[in-house]
Amino acid sequence: MYSVSVRDHFMIAHSFRGAVFGPAQQLHGATYVVDVEFRRADLDADGIVVDIGRACEVLKATLGALNFRNLDEVPEFAGKNTTTEFLAKVIFDRTVAAARAGLLGPGADGIETIKVTLAESHVASGSYEGRLA
Amino acid sequence: MYSVSVRDHFMIAHSFRGAVFGPAQQLHGATYVVDVEFRRADLDADGIVVDIGRACEVLKATLGALNFRNLDEVPEFAGKNTTTEFLAKVIFDRTVAAARAGLLGPGADGIETIKVTLAESHVASGSYEGRLA
Amino acid sequence: MYSVSVRDHFMIAHSFRGAVFGPAQQLHGATYVVDVEFRRADLDADGIVVDIGRACEVLKATLGALNFRNLDEVPEFAGKNTTTEFLAKVIFDRTVAAARAGLLGPGADGIETIKVTLAESHVASGSYEGRLA
Amino acid sequence: MYSVSVRDHFMIAHSFRGAVFGPAQQLHGATYVVDVEFRRADLDADGIVVDIGRACEVLKATLGALNFRNLDEVPEFAGKNTTTEFLAKVIFDRTVAAARAGLLGPGADGIETIKVTLAESHVASGSYEGRLA
Amino acid sequence: MYSVSVRDHFMIAHSFRGAVFGPAQQLHGATYVVDVEFRRADLDADGIVVDIGRACEVLKATLGALNFRNLDEVPEFAGKNTTTEFLAKVIFDRTVAAARAGLLGPGADGIETIKVTLAESHVASGSYEGRLA
Amino acid sequence: MYSVSVRDHFMIAHSFRGAVFGPAQQLHGATYVVDVEFRRADLDADGIVVDIGRACEVLKATLGALNFRNLDEVPEFAGKNTTTEFLAKVIFDRTVAAARAGLLGPGADGIETIKVTLAESHVASGSYEGRLA
Q1: The dihedral of CA C19, C21, C23, C25: what is its sign?
Q2: Residue F21's CB: how many other CB atoms inside 10 A?
Q3: A103-107, B74-78, C121-125, E41-45: lowest mean pLDDT where?
Q4: Which of B6, C63, C102, C120 has the maximum number of C-beta atoms within 10 A of its C-beta?
């Protein structure tokens, strides 16, 4: 199994609901450093898993839609805790949609699984991994 | 599959038995930077894999029992080489026990697998991964 | 010149005023990974620059007063842009105050300069460095 | 499942063929920081996955055969794009060959899978993972 | 003293002349991860050392002029060894020129010193530091 | 001012004397990841601060003399606490001695200052910086 991974980041404000979150129930924020890993069994005719340039562009666009926002005010997330692992799934879903829309190029048809990891600090991270097809 | 990972460290002395270890047969030591990753298929009702605060506390307590010790004098490890990969399994077992004792909170019931990785330097690490149930 | 450095982090929400900040004028947030470096010409009688345990406690307490807050609502920062470099100075000032209050231990009298660095992502950071005395 | 991972690096020149590569079609180069991870279900009699010393030597020798070269002039790679993911497979194959030749020691018989990851920068990497047997 | 630092990277081919370089006399290449640090005694009216957005754009443009090239064919470097420390000075000079041309914004007038660091691997780096004025 | 920095590591056991050290008074150990930075105002005729190959060899030899040892039994350190910052000075002194003995090559005459940094974990480090001449 081959993989390629690209990294970028975004910075948001949010708060959580639920006693389990303690002081994180207050409005605070985070920088998320995001790795998106694309996996497939074989390389395409160019010898790649995915065009790294396009992968970086898709990641930048995906994170750009979230960057510099207060996630508490994003209608799509109403009633949800936008935890690190929840956001990993959001970015996974949007990356899958971008791949299906052809934004990763034609060779991206061969991608089998995608893993999205968000580091929220030097000591904690969350991820979501799933199939593309 | 979702995951959450937390990091802490501990510092110990030990020695190894066996020609394969060369100069590491002498009494020396190591700092281990430890990542514990918790994985599950679905988030709990709060939108989390595990309470990161509790995960950090469990990890600190687990490593605290080993920290600042000479592992050659720990009865539990008698006759064993406390290699990086061996210690990864020790910490895995103790994390599993903590989870079963409820120390990770009720939502931790959904955790399926745990991976413990110990970096012994900037160029070498060891890990153990297994099922919680 | 000797130094010792310790690391911790905090997570906040804030917004900036001024066209130079572009989309960062919106309410967003950041994780800051903070390094505080203490420097002095000679070691104390114990052979240290500063008690690392106390340095970690002082750093945790200093960051704890900011952690999980919306800095736009902190009276002390009214009318200020809480940029990375501005916050480095805030943490510097509070660390100096803690040192003068004896919270770093008696040996801390020998510390000459302190440097506080805040990494706001994997690609950007800010710092403030000044004298303790 | 246990693992042990070791790290080293190599520096090469190369160029790519194919419009997808854009300016990377020009002769350029890269530093690759390489992690080789060895995995097995059980530890050997010494309590290890693999002799880390031997693993480091095998990795150094494997990378040494590529280091400081122009990969466009390596006959074995003629007609191929020596992308990060392609090179991960090359290093995987050579590590497998070294293991079979006994260069990792007798205990290496128990290794089940190997994963080779090449970081080409702080924001991009590629990998190949496969079975040893 | 305040500072702000931004990071980006570039990938080049080159060779060195001189017995001291050993096998690096062959055509090879490198990824350089570049940090540019801007320092000044006081913050500007917006509370910043430099506009991070502009600093990132200047760095990207500066590295873009070198990226994906064979430095042996760059007329400006004829007869020079484009070592890590040499390239740090090249990027320093070009950053200074950009600052003087106003590309860092009007507030950049207050910048006193700039330090450029190039990491060529996980174990080696070079830098150049000098005054802006 | 130019610099070049190289990295390696060593692993030791030791204990400390003094109430300030708390549980670190027990025999324990550490991995130290060591950066040695060489600084000079001008490059030599080859365009370098120091021969990186020789610098790496000197560092490996310097650390090799400490690696896999119990520092409590090293006569040279009797009566001393081998703290991170103390060891930074030890390695500084030995690097200076190596430079004066010509082990860094003839071009090393131009080196003005050396900084040695030891990271003892992902959250703490110590350093010593001084003049070579």
Answers
A1: negative
A2: 20
A3: A103-107
A4: B6
Q: Report chain D residues whose CB lies below 8 A from the CB of B20.
A: 46, 48, 51, 53, 105, 107
In angstroms, the CA A51 to CA A91 distance is 19
DSSP string, E34-73: EEEEEEESS--TTS-SS-HHHHHHHHHHHHHTTTTEEGGG
Partners of residue C8 in chain F, C-beta under 8 Å: 123
Give the nearest chain A residue to F122 (CA atoms): A122
Instruction: Nearest by CB to D52, from B124, B129, B130: name it.
Output: B124
Q: Which residues from D are below 8 Å from B when comparing CB atoms?
A: 1-8, 43, 46-49, 51-53, 56, 105, 107
| pLDDT, tens digit, 9 for 90 and up, residues B8-20 | 999 999 999 999 9
Q: What is the DSSP letter of A64?
A: H
Residue range A42-67: mean pLDDT, rounded: 97
Chain D residues near any Cβ of chain E (below 8 Å):
7, 9, 11-14, 23-24, 26-33, 67-70, 120-123
How many other CB atoms sit within 10 Å of the CB of residue C17? 13
Question: Which amino acid appears at position B62 of this protein?
Answer: T
What pTM, to 2 d.p., does this model score?
0.97
ipTM for the whole complex: 0.95
Q: Where are the alpha helices (DSSP H) in chain C?
A: 52-64, 84-100
F13 vs F68: CA distance, rounded Å: 8
Report the C-alpha gap between F59 and F67 in whole angstroms. Answer: 12
Measured from the Cβ of residue C72, the count of other Cβ atoms closer than 10 Å reads: 17
CA distance B63 to A123: 15
Is A36 a residue whose pLDDT tops 90? yes
Q: Which residues of E71-106 are buried (b: 16+ CB within 10 A; e: fewer)?
A: bbebeebeebbbbbbbbbbbbbebbbebbeeebbbe
pLDDT value at F3 more than 80? yes
Q: How many residues can be counted in chain D?
A: 133
Any idea which residue has 């990891």 for tokens?
A117
Q: CB D14 to CB E29 under 8 A?
A: yes
Q: Which residues of F touch A (CB under 8 A)?
A: 122-123
pLDDT band with cut points at 50, 70 and 90 for residue B109 = confident
Within its chain, how far is the Cα of B61 from the centroid? Answer: 11
For chain C, which residues lie within 8 Å of any Cβ of chain A, measuring from their own Cβ?
Answer: 7, 9, 11-14, 23-24, 26-33, 67-70, 120-123
Of C7, C28, C33, the CB nearest to A11: C28
C-alpha to C-alpha distances, A85 to A57, B41, E116, nearest whole angstrom:
22, 11, 36
pLDDT tens track for C78-109: 999 999 999 999 999 999 999 999 999 987 88
Contact D85 A53 (CB under 8 A): no
Cβ pair B117, B34 in contact under 8 A = yes
The C-alpha atoms of residue F17 and residue F72 are separated, in whole angstroms, by 11
Decide if D107 and B21 are in contact by the 8 Å CB cutoff: no
Instruction: Report the residue of chain A nearest F123, measured CA to CA.
Output: A122
Residues of B in contact with F33 (CB under 8 A): 121-122
Helix F52-64 and helix F84-100, axial crossing angle in degrees, nearest 10: 130
With an 8 Å CB cutoff and a minimum of 3 pairs, decide whether chains D and A touch: yes
Phi, psi of D122 (to 5 degrees): -75, -5
